[in-house]
Amino acid sequence: MGRTSAIEALGTALEDCTAGGSRIVWIEGATGCGKSALADALAERAAADGVVVLSAVACAAERGLPLGVVRQLVRSDGLFTPPAAAAHGGAPSRVEDMQAFCAALRELGADHPAVLLLVDDVEHADEESLRHLEYIARHARSAKVLMVVTGSLHADDRYPVFVTELMRQPHFRRIRLGRLSPADVAEMLGHPAGDGESEPVAGLHRISGGNPLLLRALAEEHGTARSADGAALPAPAPAGPFARAVATCLHRGGPTATGPAQAAALLGEQATPARIARLLGLGSPAVDRGLHALEAAGILDGTGFRHPVARAAALAALEPQQLAELHRRAAKVVQEDGGSATDIAAHLLAAAADGVPRHGSAADVDVLRDAAEDVLVRDDAPYAERLLELAHEMCGDDQLRVALRIRLAQITGRFSPAAAERHLTASLEALPAGGAGRPAGEHVQRLASLLITQGRIAEATELLRDTDDGQDPGLSPFDTTIDAGFAVSERLLQSARLTDATVAPLAQALRSLIISDQPERAVPWSRSLLEQADRCRAPGWGAVFASLHAEALLRLGDLPGAHAHATAALQYLPDAKGSAFQCAPTAILIRACSAMGRYTEGSRHAERQIPQRHLTTVHGLGLLRARGLHQLAVGQPHAALSDFLEVGRWLESWEADRPAFLPWRTDAAEALLRLGKPQQAERLVLQQLSLPDARRPWVRGVSLRLRAMTAAPEQRPALLRQSIDELQRSGDRLETARAMAELGRALQADGSASKGSAMIRTAWNLAKECQAIALCREILPDAPLSDPSRERTAPAPGDTGGAGRLSSSEQRVATLAAQGLTNREISAKLYLTVSTVEQHLTRVYRKLQISCRGDLPMDLELGGRVTV
Tens digit of pLDDT for each residue in 626-655? Predict the structure, then answer.
């Protein structure tokens, strides 16, 4: 029935009563649907007409208080003198007491237009009061008494005789209030009649379910009632008026509604009437009645809560211990029904909320482990970490706890290298000192692999040394990573998909490629793995492979690319401060900035204090070396030497002294040469050349360049040519340019000025290709870093001729000539005759307005932009 019709029916009943004769009206509806408001409106109208209004509001807390409702009735009007029985409760009401109560009401009705007997929420009334009301209904038919009672739909029918007795009376009328329609909502909010389907009216109706109490709360919360622009309704606040109104509805609904609401909220999508009944330990009829009451109130819509805030409000009244216990029971119910590990684990995790003791069985640990693996398929590593942390806390098996810690280190590596470091440290601390109780060899290998990926070589070596797994005790895990051939590394990169289990060996394979004879092979693989990490939504992996990609580019002399990807590696994890992992991309940034002449930026990174704990990792030592190289670049050789020697001390203490990875001896030799100590520098260079890594082209090339600097002048050209050959084989263009520049100077000093100048120009061009501005200025301090030939060769405005422009063939010949190649060498390289080469050069000289080969621009690649 609509509100207007209900008001009219109550007005008619009041008029009939004042005309003589009793009336009984039962107003029923869901909680919050306006029963009390309707009764209050009737009371105001009756009082205005001189009717005696006796009202009471029953509540669940007073159900055990005999005659509690009657006492409220007699105290609501000073004219009413309660019968003696109403003054003392305890024993069941006597007929005499009820007769006296009825007589008193008759007398009031005789002296006044009528008596309105109003009882709100009658389902909560005590039994003795109901007996009195039942007696009045039967024996006051001729009295001018209007009895109006309100009750909730689907309430617990504890006293069915009372309801039946009222319905038997001839002047009984039932008024059932429903929820508001969208048109009713529009009318209530003052919108035009046609606004029922518009926003925000439709949104208000959708969230409130048409429940007037919830609707008024929403209107209050959003200050509404009308939105001229039709904007979408903002979501209600978790603790705002709407949430409080939902809590009020549940409270007034009593246990009939509260229990099922809390169970449905807790089970969420897993909720069914049968599961709710088992969770609460109730019978199906009681649960069905409660769910129907919640649907009638508009809180549920048949598929669940209408709004998440309503669901949260249903659980807010529970104490943490109660909520935890309910979640534990829910986990058991879902498990008994064959629910998924993910659904069961969600309840176990919720039961272990802050402040609630965490306990579980071995079966719970297994469920949490399975659920963690399931959510990892959806790439939700942070949630998997929470599940495994709970499993670790519940687990009582020492071996399994170690396995769980290692798995945690793998998982958190996806999104937080710092967290992975903490888990790995905890794993090491939890290991027994030795002998019985040591983890299985499989666990040790996984643990060692993760330690190597984190750069913790000394700890990995010690762990493997203490384990009797048949491994060569003299073989360092660092050696295994460095010495893996590129064929072995590429087989792994081709066959393995990026997962938690493969990220460590894949990273090691990449590092092996980077320091191999063919570092260019690492570039496409690191780029591919970086793309895979992005697809997996794993910023931790992305940071690792962005850093390795930057390292590969740096090894090849691509300074801008190295700088960009090292920056990206740090941006993947802006909150990873304190992690040793950050040392790796930071070291690359410092080296790239120093080589590019960006000293201010490099200093900003290099001047940060390196924590002592980071110096126990190769990443930290890489940062220490980068700081030394930066200090060398800005003219601080003493400080640089100190850093290089400290790198050496750490590596020697770990028995991991591999110049293929950290060539601290040649770094220190460079610093010593700057300090005027060639003998000490020579000693370090010779030591490095005596190591097995000196067979590697890069190590040998760098060592030979420094050896030439300490050798007699007549020996330098030969040593530097060997150095250049080795460095070209290694793919390192920047080191090649450095060696070429030294060879050019050696040739000039040896009397070959022309060859020396050509070699220096080649070195300068190569350094400029790498954007190694610092090296360019070192090689030719006065050479302009922009191309002046462009201004000379660019055609003047209106010049449509071809003069001043190089053809593609002329550009290729001129480029090789600028690099110091003879005409015969150019002809062999470009498959041209010597005569054709000479003709091309003649035209180049004329177009560039120069007279000889020595005047060729040092950056013909840029000059080529004016060609056609």
Answer: 999 999 999 999 999 999 999 999 999 988
Across the chain, mean pLDDT equals 85
Q: Is the pLDDT of residue 791 over 50?
A: no
* Residues 6 or more apart in contact with residue 795 via CB below 8 angstroms: 801, 803, 804, 805, 866
d(CA 815, CA 634): 32
| Residue 670 confidence (pLDDT) | 96
Q: Which residues lie below 8 Å from residue 582, measured CB to CB, with a gap of 6+?
A: 417, 570, 573, 576
For residues 256 and 320, the answer to whether their CB atoms sit within 8 Å is no
pLDDT digit string (tens) for 145-182? Answer: 999 999 887 776 667 788 888 899 989 999 998 888 88
Sign of CA dihedral 518, 519, 520, 523: positive
Q: Of 730, 669, 661, which is closest to residue 701 (Cα–Cα)?
A: 730
Q: Is it true that the peptide bond before 200 is cis, omega within 30 degrees of 0?
A: yes
pLDDT beyond 90 at 359: no
Report which listed range, 149-153, 599-603, 863-867, is most confident: 599-603
Match 């250049």 to its residue by tokens: 724
- Residue of 63, 151, 61, 54 lying closest to 101 (CA atoms): 54
Q: At which residue do the structure tokens 């000196």 appear?
A: 694
Cα angle, residue 16 at apex, residues 14 and 19 outer, rounded to 5°: 110
User: CA nearest 696: which of 729, 657, 740?
Assistant: 729
The whole-angstrom separation of Cα 379 and Cα 739 is: 48
Contact, 289 vs 154, CB < 8 A?
yes
321 near 314, Cβ under 8 Å? no
Q: Rounded to whole angstroms, how far apart are CA atoms 820 and 811?
A: 15
Helix (H) or strand (E) run with residue 773 in it: helix 773-779
Q: What is the pLDDT of residue 356?
A: 66
Q: Rounded to an integer, what distance in angstroms lies between the CA atom of residue 293 and that of residue 298?
A: 9
Nearest to 224 by CA among 209, 238, 242: 242
pLDDT at site 790: 38
pLDDT (tens digit per residue) in 62-101: 888 888 898 888 876 655 555 544 444 445 567 888 888 8
SS3 300: strand
Q: How many CA atoms lie within 13 A of 664 on its CB side?
A: 23
| CA distance to 577, 591, 704, 739, 784, per residue, from 781 (Å) | 39, 21, 25, 17, 8
Cα gap 294→254, rounded to integer Å: 11
More confident residue, 17 or 834: 17
pLDDT tens digit sequence for 662-718: 999 999 999 999 999 999 999 999 999 999 999 999 999 999 999 999 999 999 999
Q: Which string of DSSP letters, residue by residue, matches 207-264? A: HHTT-HHHHHHHHHHHT-S--TT-PPPPPPPTTSHHHHHHHHHHHHH-HHHHHHHHHH
* Helix (H) or strand (E) run with residue 457 in it: helix 457-465
Q: Six-digit token pair at 784?
A: 């302009």
Q: Are 590 and 765 in contact (CB under 8 A)?
A: no
Whole-number Å distance between alpha carbons of 319 and 449: 45
CA–CA distance, 593 with 730 (Å, rounded to integer) = 22
**Reduced to 3 states, what is the DSSP secondary structure of residue 145?**
strand
CA distances from 689 to 420, 643, 674, 675, 677 (A): 38, 21, 21, 22, 19
What secondary structure letter does DSSP report for 204? H
d(CA 685, CA 704): 8
Burial code (b: 16+ CB inside 10 Å, e: under 16) for 472-504 equals eeeebbbbbbbbbebeebbebbeeeebebebbb
Q: How confident is the model at residue 447 (pLDDT cuts 50, 70, 90)?
A: confident
